[in-house]
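To whoever is covering the structure queue this week,

Two jobs came back overnight. Logging them here so there's a record in the thread.

Job A:
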Amino acid sequence: MNTTDLLNVASEFGSPLYVYDSDTIVNQYNRLNNAFGAVPNLRLNYACKALSNISILKLMNQLGAGLDTVSIQEVKLGLAAGFAAERIIFTPNGVSLQEIEEVTSLGAQINIDNLSILEQFGTRHPDVPVCIRINPHVMAGGNTNISVGHIDSKFGISIHQIPHLLRIVENTGMNINGIHMHTGSDILDIDVFLYASEILFETAKNFKDLEFIDFGSGFKVPYKAGDIETNIEELGEKLSTRFNEFCTEYGRDLTLAFEPGKFLVSEAGYFLAKVNVVKQTTSTVFAQVDSGFNHLIRPMLYGSQHEIENISNPKGRERFYSVVGYICETDTFANNRRINEISEGDILCFKNAGAYCMTMASNYNSRYRPAEVLWHQNKAHLIRKRETFDDLLHNQVDVDLSIALNKEVLVK
């Protein structure tokens, strides 16, 4: 998409607004698919927690992706989008046995990440194929909130608990058809990822009937010009070679699986917001927009950086601005950022807004969540309507709280 397209979409659908470019999603999928082209059996399971709009899910299904889910609701969304149940993997954390059993009844692949649930599930459903999520105790990723392979992480079964795990599998006679790991997000050091993979290969030798090995994802995407990113092509070459060697050692070809989320959709997304006020203080120039962390929480939550462009004045001289929102709390998108000169009414474009933006949006301050638009084949398609006041009240129950005040209260 170009600047003119974005301005036209903002004019048609208003702001704030999420816009997704389908071409970018397709290109990222093909790039990852090609990087691991040397692997006979590859499965890319889209991690839909990144962006779960059903139109995006349908696009992923058309590309041939599987689906990585973390809740029964995401499983049901996948089924509604047309995914075959066997192409959906369910990797929850801390959910009830009941929810896992409900997903089992829907036919999705189960991925269990704790010994308690593994034993309960194996005892009750020994014939249901189960994947096991391993914590390799390898620290990878950016912010500590998104590095999930370290020893204090709540995710996965520790590699130090493998003997206990094997005892449960033997005692229940359960069917283990896959193993899985996830070390975190924003992975840059390929050698760290490959080291964690060796731990997974070693663990895999304990299970004789595996069908797949899932290496998670967490690939870093660039957030600004010149930013570093995961070298997918180098990783693809090195891990493919090692995976094929392992399959020879194991005795049969397994499926290599990944769960890309942000990698597929982050760069496809744009968040458009209108400047309500340009506010000059004694030390700072604020550009105050018609949005806040209720729509894009990542800068406040993770300290993430989103490139911001003034698409209304792309050739204006650069000045320093702090871009802030309208939420009644500290609500900062960027501090002292060089941006082309901003006037009230201008449209600012936040890049890399495809992942963990709309899915983490809220109605804080009783604000409406924005609309979503898919830019597909050079045309804008509305894929989610902007919320209205009726949506805020939709599930609320108006209780009659009228109270007959007694005379003593009135006298006092």
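Job B:
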Amino acid sequence: MSQFNIEEEIKEIVEGEFEREPVPKSSWKSWKSFLGMYAGEHAAGTEFMIGPLFLTAGVSAFDLIVGLLIGNLLAVLSWRFLTAEIAIKNRLTLYYHLEKICGKNLVTTYNLANGILFCFLAGAMITVSATAVGIPFDMEMPKLTDTMPNGATWVIIVIIIGAIISLIAARGYDTVSQAANWMSPIIVLAFLSCGIVALNQLGVKSVNDFWAIWGEGSAPFPGQIKFTFWHVVLWSWFCNAAMHIGMSDLSVFRFAKAPSSGWTTAAGMYVGHYMAWIAAALLYAVYLKTPEAQTLLNTGEAPPVAPGPLANNAIGIFGIIAVILAGWTTANPTIYRAGLAFQAIIPKISTFWVTIVAGSIATAAGIFPAFAMKLLGFVALYGFILAPVGAIIVFEHFYGKKVGIIPFYAEEKKITFNLSVFLAWGISFGIFYFISKQFDIFLSFVTLPAWISCGVLYLVFSKILQKS
């Protein structure tokens, strides 16, 4: 293919992403498009890691079952009544929306941080897929405490998977959505099958037997923290804080016909973050009863969490395929979001190429297992950093006129650095991060206070500084 033809194809691929303009009515999509994407993205690679990691944190049956029920409901409500409402009114990407408020220079820093964190999250999902691809090659699986790659086979497999995922994400929202629609039914069926098989392997015959798997909880594994009921509620609410209260999914819901499309996130929360997490935890519960796992526990070492072998043990080759696809359906939209963040920094470069860059960073991150093995802590940090910025959009949207501040202030006054935004985020982040570290408080407990603080301070500083 000639260089001219290649450039024409790339132009055709990225056409219609509307990175710096409202999405026109001709490109609006029905709720079905979002249903498949959210079901696929959230019944996906992270679920194979998070379910077992709850067990390593020593949760009890009540904490897990009821805590997840409440936390996921709060997440759905956040998407529906905050993210989708604002997205439909403005139909802008998060990055362009923030640029209008913050100014080009300030939002560039945010976009860079946002894009890199998205890449690291996608890298963790590439790690998940690699644990399945490596099974036929008798590859050594990463341990729960591993940070570095354990061999050349691991590195090669991660690079190949990352390249494929990056190319799919680079083809734009339509391709990402279609991929999720194709894969999500297979993945959901696999999770359900894994859960049923694991229940049989655990000898569960009644509700009491099922409840006894977690019982009253246990001490956390070496290197893990103890999760209580409130850990589960707040973590499951804020594990996607950057997407809902952090407003990242403005970039997704700007394509929706109506705010009611926000309810489709329930498919991700209750099929993925509920059924799939519990099914994955059951797989790990089966593994913990094996002589290999018991030997490791007796020596004070945490048994590895490798989704590929866990699923393979339950449903064989179908499990391996499901884990591979699950990693893809999470990494695809995550890399797509990261590409949009980078594209906002360098708008003259096509979305296709910045998404390829994002995919390359994600692939590099996937080589290091630490991002996947420390997923509970990493996701809490990621939400804590990014979510308060979304409060600036939310508080301006709902309270800006009442307070009397100028909306889209940076665009209106043609400034590149909105000091109100910087002070609001910096003070909120600094105070609550200090509280977390000083008093050893898990970050999910201070995410909401930091978010509210950032929104309120933004209104206060804007009122003062816009007058001056």
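Note for Job B: The domain at 31-387 is CATH 1.10.4160.10 (Hydantoin permease).

Please reply-all if you pick these up so we don't duplicate work.
Q.
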